[in-house]
Amino acid sequence: MDSDLAEAIDALRDSFRQRKLKAVFRQGDEAAVRALGKRLGLPHRYTEFLKAADPADVETATPTERLRLIPADALEKEQLGYGRGDATTPARNGWRPGWIVIGHSALLGDPYFLDTTRIDAEGDCPVMTAMNGAELKPTLCASNFACFIRILATAMDVARGFAPNVADPDDEYIFREALAPGLRAVDPAAARARHWT
Hints:
Helix content is about 40%, strand content about 15%. The chain is α+β, with helices and mostly antiparallel strands.
């Protein structure tokens, strides 16, 4: 695993510890993850994440989002109804086969997905989201998966000063403003896309 991803994972784990929130990461089964990667066409950096820190029970919590990451053993099933429909669950209109769902908003159900049609030289790709149940208009969440994990950690750190489980429009605005500088430092392209802020 490369140092960018390892540092991002450590930062995310630490953000959960600092906030005393439950997060279960487990060591992924290397052979099973490799086979899953081939079946779904997963980028190298994401499979390395699943091997090192498979998100068995991981849900971030900030004033603007609760994002649940999908564990490796549920990843294939989560694709049904998206790009990999079957006879009982047809694919969503406009969903591209190269998009792989890796998480969901626990608040709105919106999918977070890898755009594997744009894999870079490091074996990574952008992470996108789109509103669930609406016309698909993908928005950039992170320039690559390692940045995505770092953004989640940064958001969790910024959320440390906010009351948990309280929906307050003022808190949402203040949180977004407080997150913006950290987001620009981690991923300027994601900051410009304005999904997080």
